[in-house]
Amino acid sequence: MFCDQCEQTAGGTGCTTRMGTCGKDEDIHSLQDTLVYGLKGIAAYAYHARQFEARDEEVDAFMHEALFTTLTNVSFDLNQHLAMVLKCGEMNLKIMELLDKVHVENFGNPVPTAVDTGTRKGPGILVTGHDLLDLQEILKQTEGTGINIYTHGEMLPAHAYPELKKFKHLAGNYGGAWQEQRKDFNAFPGAILVNTNCVMTPQAGTYLDRLFTCNVAGVQGAAHIKTRDFSALIQKAKTLPSLPEANGQKIMTGFHHTAILGLADKIVGAVKAGKIKRFFLIGGCDGARPGRNYYTEFAEKVPQDCVILTLACGKYRFNKLEFGAIDGIPRLIDIGQCNNAYSAIQVALALSKVFNCSVNELPISFVLSWFEQKAVAILLTLLYLNIKGIRLGPTLPAFISKNVLNVLVEKFDIKPVTTVDADLEQALKGK
Ligand code: SF4
Questions:
Q1: In angstroms, how far is CA 99 from the centroid of its own chain?
Q2: Closest by alpha carbon to 173, among 162, 188, 163?
Q3: Pocket around ligand 1: residues whose beta carbon is below 6 Å from it?
Q4: Residue 393 and residue 384: Cα distance in Å, rounded?
Q5: Which residues in the chain show pLDDT less than 70?
């Protein structure tokens, strides 16, 4: 595209705005990029909801309107863009709520569950991604075949849903977060299915011949399953070597808001008695960059009289550590997938009612990690809810301009993470 405003090739050398829209300043671009990333996150959740034939007309209409506002020379109004970005957060809350509703309607209310991380003797299929319906179908189609089904990464919370956990051959959770795929998949001798993001491409000569994709996921050279007929995957698993019988530790998941609110009396009592001083929501995406050790160190240093809430795959950095309990309340409470941020919000809102204060006045600190677009959508939801003082890292998104960051700091007290000790000290003071 040739830009008629500066006569540069749009997006090429010399183009400062990447889209040939030099009439707009970098702050408008920053907000438009934020909006587009947020919309991608909403699209993922809306897609999952549609697998259950559920949709939200208002969210759909917003997607069209919001994308329209990012076209060349539609709006030069910064406040209008800010409002659109916050509206994106509101719509993301709606779609997460819808997704939670269809998950619960179809699979039951999640219950706290200890998940085995070992393996059972026999053939196996490893499922990674986020789509629970795919997993249910695989479980049905492999029942009685002797094949064990393992979850990887963000599929971990599946073990907590009654309609999924009832399958005896849902054997356990294998490996770590998405960036461990190459190592984990190489070591897993069975067949592997990727049903959504985050997928890594295999290195040459490794597991491509036993890798399958379905849904929106795709890897060049891997067999793609178009409908939910998993017979090719199952046949492949039968030809591959067995997994060994191997013990693994248990990790907990399934603290949906209905489960946490079931403990509400205990939690409120422990807070009032001073036994729980603070909650830390350490949530978000994992990634391969070294700075992400911040989250492990943070979790390790959270004082014994505090509770850690987790969601999404960032938890794999520390969810095998022993955190103990306070009066029977686990100190590490895994709420689930990233979309279960909806549950975390419900818990925060319920506690704010009990303590008759705003969410910002509760002893809760938000320590978030971002990597991909759903995390952006969730961050916008928290801002839409006017949640202040969120710590964000490990680095700030490159698409946030200096002025937009200033607005976020002034309006929402967003705090880029610094060092664990400094951040923890401030957080414990409620700052
Ligand atoms: S939580 Fe985010 S980074 Fe992790 S697997 Fe899901 S989409 Fe990917």
A1: 13
A2: 188
A3: 153-154, 178, 197-198, 285-286, 312-313, 338, 371-372, 374
A4: 19
A5: 1-24
Write out pLDDT tens, residues 265-295.
Answer: 999 999 999 999 999 999 988 888 777 899 9
State in Å: Cα 79 to ligand 1 middle.
Answer: 31
Q: Give the Cα separation of 254 and 246 in Å (integer).
A: 24
Residue 205: strand, helix, or coil: coil
Residues 54, 133: Cα–Cα separation, whole Å: 13
Among protein residues, the one whose CA lies closest to atom 3 of ligand 1: 285
311 touches 338 (CB < 8 A): yes
- Which DSSP category does 408 fall into? H
Pairing of strands 415-416, 170-173: unpaired
366 and 282 in contact (C-beta within 8 Å)?
no
Q: Which tokens belong to 102? A: 């269809």
Peptide bond into 416 cis (omega under 30): no
> Which residue segments constitute the domains of the chain, with CATH numbers given?
26-107 (1.20.1270.20), 113-239 (3.40.50.2030), 255-428 (3.40.50.2030)
Q: What is the CA radius of gyration of the chain?
A: 22
Q: How many other CB atoms are found less than 10 A from the CB of residue 34?
A: 24
How far apart are the CA of 154 and the centre of ligand 1, in A?
Answer: 7
- Distance from the first to the final alpha carbon of the chain: 47
> Is residue 44 exposed (0-12), middle (13-18) or buried (19+ Cβ within 10 Å)?
buried
Residue 257 three-state SS: helix
CA of 284 to the centre of ligand 1 (A): 8
Strand pairing partners for 311?
Answer: 283, 336
List, for residues 289-307, the tens digit of each pLDDT value: 777 899 999 999 999 999 9
181 Cα: distance to centroid of ligand 1 (angstroms): 12
Q: Tell me: cis bond preceding 198? Omega within 30 of 0 counts.
A: yes
